[in-house]
Amino acid sequence: MIDKRSIQIYDTTLRDGAQSAGIHFSASDKKRIARRLALFGVDWIEGGWPGASPTDDKFFEMMAERNWSHSRLVAFGSTARPGHLAEEDKGLIRLTECGADAACIFGKSWDLHVTLGLGIELPTNLELVETSIAYLKRHLDTVMFDAEHFFDGYRANPNYAMQVLDAAVRGGADVLVLCDTNGGTLPEQVGACVAHVVAHYPAVKIGIHAHNDSEMAVANSIAAVSAGATQVQGTVNGIGERCGNANLISVIPTLMLKMGVECSVELDGLKKLRHLSTFVNEMANQIPWQHQPFVGQNAFAHKGGVHVSAVRKGSHLYEHIDPLCVGNLQKVLVSNQAGRSNILAKLQQLEPQAVVDDAAVVRVVKRIKEMEAVGYAFEGADASFQLLLRRASGQFVRHFELIGFRVYDEKRGHDEPPESEATVRVKVNGELQHAAALGSGPVNAMDKALRAALAGVYPGLEMMRLTDFKVRVLTTKDATEAAVRVLIESSDGVKRWNTVGVSTDVLEATYRALNDAIEYKLVMDQVAAESAP
After folding, report:
1. Residues ≥6 apart with Cβ < 8 Å to 377
2. Percentage of residues in the chain having pLDDT higher than 70
3. For residue 4, is pLDDT > 50?
4. Which residues of 202-319 form beta strands (DSSP E)?
5. Which of 525, 278, 497, 523 is nearest to 393 (CA)?
6. Given 3.10.180.10, 3.30.110.170, 3.30.160.270, 3.40.50.2300, which CATH number is that of 401-531?
7. Is residue 67 packed enough to be buried (19+ CB in 10 Å), middle (13-18) or exposed (0-12)?
8. What is the dihedral of CA 49, 50, 51, 53, to 10 degrees?
9. Cβ–Cβ < 8 Å for 143, 136
10. Across 1-24, average pLDDT
């Protein structure tokens, strides 16, 4: 029986997940994801490798003012380079100076990697592991050791693999993380190996870091916990290098709902699992996997026949858990139901004090279904959702009317940069406002022109800036005629908010997202003014 509240969740979405092909997180993206992970209740959030890239350096700089109640920030790195003393190794020094709460470094535990990969003697590698951890422990309370290629190394040379762990323990490692780096180990092998290591180091926490090259990462993580591991490393949605990492979106509910393990995530907090999954997909600019276990749109979908008849009598007849436990919904494809509880839950999350009548909720459900049918998605666009709800409940009054906009994008010469200019005409309080602006591209020009046309009437918009911009092609089969979804993030220097727009014209989609961004800012300014004493 696994002890209650004994399993730590270690998220490496921002580092290992960011190594996934086609995924790039900006420093701001990483900050937003880290905040969501902290709110969700993850124990350890691995932010990246200080010194590896300007993005990671900027991220750790931005996290200096974090205020997390439970989660702790981890910096990732490696043992000292061969031929360098630990206290003189620049990589290790950066780990102690980046402001993280803990460090996790990897070292070689497969003798083949030591002699062939690093080109050094086996005892030298043991010294690097021990001295690197000992140096970090003089500066940080918690140091974890990722034993890279441990399962392959253990099969090839079990004595040396264990010697590497011995060196890490002598250095003072708080957690020994066994890595299935190539992703080729099977659950039975993982369980036996972890059980041996747990028995050998009863006073040290043992972790598992599984890759998914054999589609076994989640199963291997569960096998490791069953064998005594007390920390699981993975990523949201299983993103990561090659075939990805252990998917925490599957690992966490399996531990909590299937095995009775109480992680730092509370059962009530587990209801945010689907929101977390969808949010990271938006930040990664990935189309969600509709059949993803637990959180996918079709994870609890039923289509006609025996299944539909059965779940109407008892959902457990064809559902392994209550979908509400992970923030999902049952979906009966042959009927026109579902959606209201999801809307109410989202409203409660965004505006706990808001009161909306049933008729407004019905209108919102209908409108969201219509908009999602053409490509809208509101999981990463809370501001657009709140405006939609206000419109349905009659609480929204438009602050301006668009008369028209034009955007010119001109390129002269093969090597010359293009020039973008936008003109906007709007009507405010019955009066026509007109403005033009140059920009770094058509989107920037439109953003500047629209705010310039309105700033004379609404001076609060002068502080507003577009801080992030993402475009997703919703289907590839229509080529250049395909609809696109634009997700933008805006800020006034104090608050950040996200809006969405969809169209077959990227500028029209951008305008819709910008319109919502400005309207949200004006609505929030109005609410703040009305509530001021």
Report:
1. 278, 282, 485, 500
2. 91
3. no
4. 205-210, 231-234, 301-302
5. 523
6. 3.30.160.270
7. exposed
8. 60
9. yes
10. 85
Phi, psi of 316 (to 5 degrees): -70, -10
Give the lowest-confidence range in 8-22, 33-47, 315-329: 315-329
Task: Give the CATH fold of the 8-265 domain.
Answer: TIM Barrel (3.20.20)
Q: Spell 21-33 as b/e; 16+ CB within 10 A means b.
A: eebebebbbbbbb
Map tokens 């209801």 to a residue. Answer: 271
Q: In the block, which residue shows the tokens 């993380």?
A: 177
Tokens 């919904």 sit on residue: 329
Q: How confident is the model at residue 147 (pLDDT cuts 50, 70, 90)?
A: very high
Q: Which helix (H) or strand (E) holds 452?
A: helix 442-455
Secondary structure (3-state) at 109: coil
The order of strands in the sheet holding 484-491 is 465-473, 484-491, 496-503
Domain boundaries for CATH 3.20.20.70 within the chain: 8-265
How many whole angstroms separate alpha carbon 470 and alpha carbon 489? 9
Domain(s) of CATH 3.30.160.270: residues in the chain: 401-531
Quick check: pTM over 0.85? no
Can you tell me the mean pLDDT for 468-493?
Answer: 84
Question: Which residue from 318, 292, 294, 322 is spatially nearest to 307, judged by alpha carbons?
Answer: 318
Give the position of tokens 């996290």: 63
Residues contacting residue 154 through CB under 8 Å, at least 6 positions apart: 109, 161, 162, 193
**What phi and psi, each to the nearest 5 degrees, are found at residue 466?**
-80, 115
